[in-house]
Amino acid sequence: MKKLFLFIGLVIFGFTIANSSVARKTLINKHPAVLAQDTAAGWQKAATWTAMSDNKKLIYKINPKSLTVYASWNSKTWSAVIGGTWVDKNGNWIKIQNKKLVSSSDKGATWTEISDGKWQDADGDWCMFGSDWSLWIKK
User: Fold this and answer.
1) How far apart are the first and last CA of the chain?
2) HEC letters along 123-135
3) Mean pLDDT of the residues in the chain
4) CA dihedral defined by 87, 73, 136, 28, rounded to 10 degrees?
């Protein structure tokens, strides 16, 4: 009977340790594959964003080293986007030019830097790139 109580006590202790915030922080720090999250501002690191093209939703991603933008209809096959442009929720064209995010409201005739670096994707989520060109999304 003592062994049963000892076993139950150890199991409860194990669950308590596994669910502690210290254990979670240690796990996240040791496993960088867990997406970072800035909960204070509501921003989360993400891999893709959305935009509309020909009344169909496209999925976009960026290679942060080359700043190449890729698009996909199905998240399986990806193609580099010619010109690197995508369309935000308001129909403005967006691209990266000289390592700055720029926008065009006249289908590419003129480009203006997006001062705060944020845009809204087709799903209505706010997006921005970090200083290392990683994608951040705020739902």
Assistant:
1) 52
2) CCCEEEECCCCCE
3) 82
4) 180
CA distances from 102 to 45, 57, 97, 107 (A): 21, 21, 7, 12
> Judging by beta carbons within 10 Å of its beta carbon (0-12, 13-18, 19+), is residue 7 exposed, middle or buried?
exposed
Does the predicted TM-score (pTM) go above 0.85? no
Q: Are 114 and 21 in contact (CB under 8 A)?
A: no
Q: Per residue in 33-67, is it b (16+ CB within 10 Å) or e — as a string?
A: eeeeeeeeeebbebebbbbeeeeeebbbbbeeeee
Among all chains, which residue has been given the structure tokens 């989360």?
44
Question: For residue range 68-93, what is the model confidence (pLDDT) as tens digits?
Answer: 999 999 999 999 999 999 999 999 99
